[in-house]
# Entry
Amino acid sequence: MSLPTDDQTRRRTLFWLAATAIVLLLGIGLRYPWPADEPRFAQVAREMVESGQWLFPTRGGEPYPDKPPVFMWLTALAFALTGQLKIAFLLPSALAAFGTLLLVHDIGRRLWNREVALAAALVLVLTPQFLLQGKTGQIDALVCFWITLGCYGLLRHFFLGPQWRWYFIACAGMGMGIITKGVGFLPLLMLLPLALWVRGPGAAGTPVWRWRLLAGGLVMGFIALLWLGPMLWQVHSIGSDTMVAYRNDLLFRQTGERFVNAWHHVKPWHYFFTQAIPTVWFPLVVLLLVFFKPLVALLREDRRARVLLAWVGLVLLFFSLSSGKREVYMLPALPMLALVVGVLWTRVRGSVAAARTGLFFQGFLVLLALAITGLGAVLQASPEKLLRKAPDYAELIGTLPVPLIAMGLTLLVVLVLVRRRDLLERLAAATLTVWVFVALMVWPRVDPHRTPQEMMEQVEQKLPPQSELALLYFKEQFLLFSHRPLTHFSYLAPLEEQERNAWVWMHEAPNRFLLVPTDAELSCFDVSKTVSLGEAHRREWVLFGADSMRAGCEPPGKARRYVYRPDVRGVLP
# Structure
């Protein structure tokens, strides 16, 4: 098997980078934010632009303490520049994912060679989690970029250095990661394997371990204080209970307390290894298992791969220590693992085992394409069985046969065209092909079923023009699709406190209505006197009017009331 020349590798690299960039951008502007996280971040960014208040993120006018503001800042900036929230909420993740891809390719080229760099980039592209996060309006693709930048700078300094400029850029990236999601310090864990296996001078013959490494902490702290400083000063100056609660919730409850005593997404300690990795990091697991012996040999011979894989293990161990676990927590470890797999693949791709693995995956992809085509054909010819099982999605199911058939047939054609290519290129081609159809044909058809747009339009039809509307036990997507001012009674308050404040609000003036899901257990309102609006997000929603109020209601422990007045320009069609 002849090895490709540098020019050939360079051309292939440019093609795959360009193809990935196009796929990351495809579909932007064709759908609205979807729950659970996208509407929250989009709404917070929208309020920043509408109110001019960028220091304290707000959700429906109430301070939002769950995350630091960097991701919302970038989304708000994109909204301010484009004027379209459907475009703005996806741009930061797409750009961050592509930035991560470039960093992985560049450090792979510098530490090894162009073939390793291309292989590592392809591994990222073909891993389901990477493009999924790059095409969603969540915070994780951005924090992955900052953490990858931190790793990139450390690797350049310790293996190719000393390169103090890149070391301090790494620390700055970690600082940005901290004020993006709090875990931006994770590249510091790489100092442990670096201390074990990189003790001598760097590539330039000068020591890389100097006392000035400690100055990196100052850089990291300075970057974090660019937001923390003004925020803490303003909280101290204002001194209200709301702002003090915001500070304490953000800095303590959502960080240390959430890690030590998680109240959401509680999973067993082995969750990442037994459930998450085999699914969202497929087919990396297969490659690592098939080529386990070559992997052990690689780790024995190459300290660069040893450092990277040790860091991946430390990151997974760190998140495993917390009882709260989600698949997205693993994402920052994926780029460095992709480098290790890239090095491994360039060593084994000419072997008999690699050829057999290629045949296995080729067969798997063909079966997948046939399954997608067959599902579309069944839905087209006789959808009755599926409609009986999911009658609420009849309209959606009726729109999917053509995209599924087109996706499956196109995937078969692509597999024929790339059948002689390297396995990683075949897998990447299949992945990008599927994402083209998902972004352009599937997601736009699913969109009406993932937003409350139709229900909020019903609200406008049923309510008098001058009436007022409040929300109880709500989600952020209702704020996104409201045509009128909305009142709520603190997203963070217990339901009973929200209900009591809502009763007081409705008692104060006539012509006020309350939008509530039917699964909310209420005591101050008569649930038999409501107007049904149908279902949104698997819950039925109803309107309470003045006639549904009971004669009395226990007073709230604390008066809480927030009014959000939306500017629908650039949000609603």
